[in-house]
Amino acid sequence: MKLVLPGLLRDELLPRVKTVAPEAIIVWYDQNGEPDAPINDAEVLLRWFFPPEQLAGFIHRMPALRWLHIPRAGVDGLLIPEVIERDIIVTNSAGVHAIPISEFVMLFALSHVKQATHLHQLQAAHQWREHDLQLRELAGSTMLIIGLGQIGQAIATRASAFGMRVWGSRRTPRPTTGVERVVGEGEWRTLLPEADFVVIATPLTPFTRGMFGREELALMKPDAYLINIARGEIIDETALIEALRNRRIAGAGLDVFTQEPLPPDSPFWTLPNVFVTPHISWSSPFIRSRTLDLFITNLHAFIHNEPMINVVDKQAGY
């Protein structure tokens, strides 16, 4: 069996691969996507962080490809025709980012109720104004998580630990640890009027693109807070800016945007009720090792014809 792997990770991958597949032939590709040997007979490709057009080039050169692993949770932009039309197993790295992203959601929520931005401003101004702030608690408030995948479930675990009431949605509703109420796709809209925090944690698919717009924002409470750690394209940003400017909702914590990097002239930068971060909620020193551990686990399963983890439904888009 021949594998095509990123040369950038050679020192980390080689001993792990040889442990589960000692007879495997490995072709390494450089940062320009150039392999160091022929890949026409390779069956496995670990796609590191190169653009979709480069992925298409790999697929064309690998007629024997049977399995493609992607080192991130979202596969939007990577389910290109070359992948969909062929009988290629696609797996993603859903779950490896769940801890840092769920912690980031709590950062957004805590920053909002504890008025962290205002407190930093007071510190910068050397002002001691303990009686002017109306701080709140997370305990007893309601968080609605749209998308109870591995990240959504990790968010629920942490939110419930803070004493929050947690609701959530998933394609097939079923009891979920830390979630008091689970509804199906689309039903989350009925819960918006009662939620104090609304968290977007669903994958970007043709179905979810632009699903959170003016009508959904109008259903939220005026003191509710919106958090997006999924994909910017899920939210109608024009409608969101309008809602934030008019204080239709209390504010938003946004780690993702339709255009990234966020343009310098974007209104999001200067809106006082927005916490902007540069798509960094996934960041952790443990992400690479978790991703490679997942790849090696799936490599073992692939070799032995066993069920693999995180197999992507190419038609559903996640």
From TrEMBL:
Keywords attached to this entry: NAD, Oxidoreductase
Species classification: Bacteria, Bacillati, Chloroflexota, Chloroflexia, Chloroflexales
GO molecular function: NAD binding; oxidoreductase activity, acting on the CH-OH group of donors, NAD or NADP as acceptor
Family: Belongs to the D-isomer specific 2-hydroxyacid dehydrogenase family.
The keyword Oxidoreductase is assigned to this record: yes
D-isomer specific 2-hydroxyacid dehydrogenase catalytic domain mapped to chain residues: 56-312
InterPro entries noted in UniProt: D-isomer_2_OHA_DH_cat_dom (IPR006139), D-isomer_DH_CS (IPR029753), D-isomer_DH_NAD-bd (IPR006140), NAD(P)-bd_dom_sf (IPR036291)
Name of this protein: D-isomer specific 2-hydroxyacid dehydrogenase NAD-binding
Boundaries of every D-isomer specific 2-hydroxyacid dehydrogenase NAD-binding domain copy: 108-281
The species this protein was found in: Chloroflexus aggregans (strain MD-66 / DSM 9485)
A Pfam family hit: 2-Hacid_dh
Keyword flag Transit peptide: no
Domain of life the protein comes from: Bacteria
